[in-house]
Amino acid sequence: MNVHDSEQMEALLMKEGFRITDTDKSADLIIVNTCSIREKAEQKVYSILGRYRGLKQARPGMIIGVGGCMAQQKGAELFARAPYIDFVFGTHNIHRLPEIVKDVERNRARRVETCFHDTVYSIGIVTPPHNGSVSSFVTIMQGCNNFCSFCVVPYLRGREESRELKDIVDEITILASHGVKEVTLLGQNVNSYGNTLHNGADFPSLLKKIGDIEGIERIRFTTSHPKDLSDGLIECFATVDKLCEHIHLPVQSGSDSVLKRMNRRYDADDYLRKVNKLREVCPYISISTDFIVGFPGESESDFQKTIDLMEEVRFDNAFSFKYSARPGTAAEKLDDRIPEPVKRERLTRVQELQQIHTVEKNHALKGMVEDILVVGLSKNSHTDVSGRTKTNRIVNFEGERELIGKTVCVSIHNTYIHSLRGKLFEKERNQKC
Ligand code: 5AD
Ligand code: SF4
Fold first, then answer.
1. Residue 340 — φ and ψ, nearest 5°?
2. Atom 13 in ligand 1: which residue has the minimum CA distance?
3. Atom of ligand 2 at shortest distance to CA of 151?
4. Contact in structure between 394 and 418 (CB atoms under 8 Å)
5. Quick check: 432 pLDDT over 70?
6. Residues with CB under 6 A from ligand 2
7. How far is the CA of 398 from the centre of ligand 2 (A)?
8. Average pLDDT over residues 26-31
9. 193 vs 433, which has greater pLDDT?
10. Domains in the chain, please, with CATH?
């Protein structure tokens, strides 16, 4: 979401004549887009801002703005920590960026814009595809009403709001006309899409509509809440051809008592049942997840239940985090904090086990032929191109720039933890591999 917010900021400022610079030293305007999800992310922001102190001293005319979740949370407090910044704008005020920048340029006075609006205008900011990019993000909803006890998002992004179905379809139709082949639908909890619209639109109906847009070949989405993963949505993996065979379904913990205290509103058995249904409907689906270790009160036996669940599901990929107390959340007030060394040790155990599962799953693809949508040149070699399998694995293989935007067959020769290496099988799609 944050990457797409930055793209929206860029699109708004480009319209005003701003251009991206090669280095921050030569910039007239620097925007720092921040995240507050864990304490570590906040520390990173302070260290980035620290670097800009010298830049501002050298060029006092430069304007520095701070946006995103941390800006929403801290507001004017950020001036105390970094007095050289010029403005702070929160998550509901992205659409006002051009006006704020103009005002700061003209009046050279500080501004703080962190109020919430009933309508989140920023969900409707359309970003043109980047430099011939064949894959784009599209926001379909924003905010969250779930209030998981560890999470700061509902406080900083506000209540859930869905974007009108027609606006989403129109944006994707325009993207397709610019050569975009793949869209990733974004929202804090995409499967509750439509709840605020009261017109019958829901996430499965949106997927079907997008599936009909000419030129769009692949649909992805993130993130889903397990409690809202309906049978209707699971069915879409069989009925919407363009829907990629991947779901990111954060489980957070395998212990029912931890899940209860996290206010997740499902238990481990509910989660396992949904995983089984997904695999019944779509046998090759790849499933990734998030884990939090060291939530207050997490006993060794609670933690072991997370390990057991990992062994049972064998996720294709996972992101894992040490619990970080966030200001204003319900979990912040819970006693029985887990000591840092215990959290660290549990994180290592989760990560080591996940590494084994990821390597195993990737290795199983050796010798298979996969459909790859080529999205660009490879980062590591200019004679290679790069793309993804429908199951969201990065594949690099030798090929020319002309392949970008095409879906090609690639045979998988080597597998690593973060990517696969393949060989072009056929140049054109829709031919038998
Ligand atoms: N501490 C640790 N991890 C967190 N996440 C969200 N809030 C916290 C927190 N306070 C993780 C969850 C979520 C992912 C985006 O970030 O796993 O799914
Ligand atoms: Fe946070 Fe839970 Fe909402 Fe996800 S569903 S954004 S974890 S409150």
1. -55, -45
2. 290
3. 1
4. yes
5. no
6. 144, 146-148, 151, 153-154, 188-189, 225
7. 40
8. 96
9. 193
10. 2-113 (3.40.50), 121-363 (3.80.30.20), 369-424 (2.40.50)
